[in-house]
Amino acid sequence: MNAGSWAASAACRGRGPSLWFAELDSAESQAGVAVCGSCPVRLECLAFAFEARVSDGIWGGVSAADIAKLRRKRGWAAGGLRGCG
Q1: What is the DSSP annotation of 15-26?
Q2: Which residues of 2-13 are buried (b: 16+ CB within 10 A; e: fewer)?
Q3: Eight-state DSSP code of residue 42
Q4: Considering the entire predicted model, what is its pTM?
Q5: Share of the chain above pLDDT 90, in %
Q6: Contact criterion met (CB below 8 Å) for 82 and 36
């Protein structure tokens, strides 16, 4: 999945990385999640992070740690999607 196809429409475009790569539950990370809440491409961003197996930051309003937990819960932890959604 290519981030370029949807990233130009993202609400976070042009903002610094401090909102997306701040310590979890900090004021900065909460501000980042708030920006995601009104983003027109939030789902595309989250899907990108899920498929790319990101390890840091906030993507589509969800932390990378929570994305990893969801992948493990769904049995998709290694090597692509397995099973049904």
Answers
A1: --GGGTSSPTTS
A2: eeeebeeebbbe
A3: H
A4: 0.74
A5: 25
A6: no
Residue identified by tokens 């309003």 is 61
Which amino acid would we find at residue 71? R
Question: How many angstroms separate the CA atoms of 42 and 44, rounded?
Answer: 6
Q: How many residues does the chain have?
A: 85
44 contact partners, CB below 8 Å, separation of at least 6: 5, 6, 60
Q: Which residue has the tokens 């049904």?
A: 84
Helix intervals (H) in the chain:
4-7, 27-37, 42-52, 64-74
Mean pLDDT within 42-67 = 88
Query: What is the per-residue pLDDT across 16-49, written as a single tens digit (0 to 9) for each?
Result: 888 888 887 788 888 888 999 999 999 999 989 8
